[in-house]
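The instructor's notes for this session suggest beginning with a concrete chain rather than abstract definitions. Hand out the sequence below and ask the class to guess, before any prediction is shown, which regions might be ordered.
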Amino acid sequence: MKVYDGQTSSETESKPEQIKVGIAEYDVSKNGAVLTTSGLGSCIGVALHDETVPVSGLVHVMLPSADDMEDGNRAKFADTGVETLIEALEDAGGNRNNMVAKIAGGSDMLDFSESGSGIGQRNVEQVKETLNDYGISVVGEDVGGNHGRSIKLKGASGELVVKSANKGSRTL
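After discussion, reveal the predicted structure:
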């Protein structure tokens, strides 16, 4: 994880830096960089923004809980990934009391269970529970269904652009 806070040159001021966040990864931006991730099926993209600093961050979580964490990658799990992202934003000057969250993903694209409680739904529930535990409100979401998504977090404004396989693009 890197915190992007460098000055932009006059050539790039009109177009912010774009940073790809991979599966089970997170990143933080203090310079208005655009954080992107793709491949959100049952995974969840959690975007946090504190406009008072401003600082933004994005984590791409795969599974609900790190209870049986074997690989030590905290960003892989909804509970520890959200916690890690909050800590990283605070380290970059953010204040959790000023943070808001936007989330996308949590599809049950390959859900064969009869209970309807697939991994996507459990990921959404765990992300919301963890954010609630930290007192951070979810102010926008595009979750569930049976389609993939990719997202783009505009670090300067906190806008989250969600592109869906079958719903086009929308801004949260």
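Then share the key points. The chain has one domain: 13-171. The mean pLDDT is 88.
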